[in-house]
Model the fold of this input.
Amino acid sequence: MSQYKYRNHDCETLAQLTALVDQSSVTNTAVSYPTWTWRQWKPFLELYFKPVTGIM
Done:
């Protein structure tokens, strides 16, 4: 029965998806991971690699 809840509902946010999973069954529980950490890649990679000439 839980697969039908997923098919018939639109989820636009992570909170809506979490609520849908939690309500889909008595035994289902949504698992949330820590928030994503964005990184400035250029300064980070410059610590470990030398720039390659001729490549932008």
Remarks:
- The chain has a mean pLDDT of 80.
- DSSP finds three helices and no strands in the chain.
- The first helix runs from residue 2 to 7.
